[in-house]
Amino acid sequence: MLHTERVSQQIEGNIMKQAAAMPQQLFGGQVPPDSKAKFDAFELQLKQATEAQIGWKVLGPEYVDLYAKTYTEPELDAILSFYKSPAGQSMLTKSPELSAQSMQLVQAKMTTLQPQLQKLAQDFVQSTKPAATQPPPTLNPTPKTAPKSNQ
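RESULT FIELD:
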C-alpha cells in the first residue's frame, strides 16, 4: 500500500505544481496583488477537489480492495516487506522520475508514430469504401469529344 499511497500523493502534487505554474502562464510572472486572493482560493479549490476524488482517504480503501482481490495474503506480506526494504524504498523514491522519463521517451516516439498511424487509418478507410463511392479510374486522360450531328 505504500506504493499506491505515494502514487496518490504524487498525482496530487503534480496537480498542485501545475497550479503553481499558472501565474507564469496567465500573468507572465507573479499573480498581481489584486488577483492574489482569487488565486489562493482557486488553489484551495483545486486541492480540495483533488483530495475529494483521488486523495488517499478516498482511494485507500479502494486500493486495499483491489490488492486484496489481486494478491494472496503471503504475496501482500512479501510486497510490503519489499517496499519497507532499502531496495523498495529506493524504488518508491525513484519511481516518479523514472515514470516521467518514460513518458518523455514515449511522447517523443509518438510524435513520429502519430502521422504514420493517421496515414494507415486513412489508407484503410479509403480501401474499405465501396467501389461506387470511389471516383472511377481514369483510363484515357484526354476527354472525348462528342460526334457532330448532321443536321
